[in-house]
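FIELD: query
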Amino acid sequence: MLSLVLRQLDDGIELTAEPGRGSVRLRCPHRPWDDLVLDLLCELDDAGVNAATLVRTLAGDGIVTWTDSLAESFYGWNGVRSWQSLEHDLRIDATHDGRGHVSLRFVIRGPRGYEPGAWEASVVVTLDSGEDMRRLVAELTELVS
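FIELD: result
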């Protein structure tokens, strides 16, 4: 069993699957124009990697629905399921190992993720496919609402 640390921060959430391993922070939700546009700060940390970028979404771009579909697929799926933000500054690739674990590869691009020459950094966080995924859905729901 993995030891997920899903921690609420004052201004967001942090995911760390194993102590001393990669972590992802989604923080500072902000609506710059008081409409559907929602910006988040995504920070990645791992051995040799420390990167951050602003992620622009339209009301979360369906990240909660996408994550919920992963949680509902408790027994697994074949291949990669991906979610991507509006301006391609954050992509999450999900794989299931068929033994109850979901690996989420968070890929950030910046400073303009939609441009072919944007830099790219990634971190993988592995969660249990049941309760950990449900908890992630609840935290993301709160973050983007």
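FIELD: remark
The longest strand covers residues 37-46.
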